[in-house]
Design a protein that fits this description.
This protein is α+β, with helices and mostly antiparallel strands. The protein has four helices and twelve strands. The chain has a seven-stranded antiparallel β-sheet with strand order 3-2-6-9-10-5-4. A three-stranded antiparallel β-sheet has the order 1-11-12. It binds flavin mononucleotide.
Length: 161
């Protein structure tokens, strides 16, 4: 199916478990802008993902748009759960640093070429995923925002665009 609906741009969602003081990241290809006014952004997160419970509780997340250069980071973040590893270690391995978000209690990635700070206004049960609808409270892009993006085709197939 993803060969028909894709390729899709790969982003990294960052989120924070405030009680346990744990930061987590998840690679996501199912995401889209949903509205201009208000500016709404949707992400589909599998119910089994560690990030799903975190975002349900924290009611916020940050969408990190990345360049194709971060392909291996996206794969590493997207193939292991934060339940079994602190993903800060993966970020450190790729020399990516965390920066506090401006308007939500969360962090973003310093190498993101653009990012959206989102407050969850609605969560919709969508089969095996939850569609989190976020109100974008802050949007910013870096000078590198015209860099090539990483697109997911299917399985371990990617292309740059
Ligand atoms: C290219 C790529 C795209 C992915 N897209 C999604 C997605 O849209 N939604 C989702 O829930 N998981 C997606 N995943 C899987 C999660 O990133 C993966 O299960 C991750 O380990 C979950 O981490 P967590 O348990 O710490 O939340 C994707 C993985 C990759 C590699």
């Amino acid at each position: 199916m993803s060969e028909i609906t894709g390729p899709r741009q790969v982003v990294i969602i960052t989120c924070r478990n405030k009680n346990k003081k744990i930061d987590n990241s998840i690679t996501v290809a199912w995401h889209t802008q949903l509205s201009f006014k208000p500016f709404l952004y949707g992400i589909a997160i599998g119910k089994t993902r560690y990030s799903c419970g975190i975002i349900k509780a924290s009611k916020c997340f940050c969408v990190n748009f990345i360049s194709a250069k971060l392909k291996q980071l996206a794969i590493d973040i997207g193939t292991i759960s934060g339940r079994s590893i602190n993903k800060d270690k993966i970020l450190a391995k790729h020399n990516v640093k965390k920066i506090e978000c401006k308007y939500i209690d969360c962090f973003r990635l310093d190498k993101a070429i653009a990012w959206l700070e989102c407050e969850v206004i609605k969560q919709i049960d969508a089969g095996d995923h939850i569609l989190f609808i976020g109100k974008v409270v802050h949007m910013q892009q870096s000078q590198a925002s015209k860099a090539k993006r990483l697109m997911h085709i299917t399985g371990d197939l990617f292309k740059e665009c």
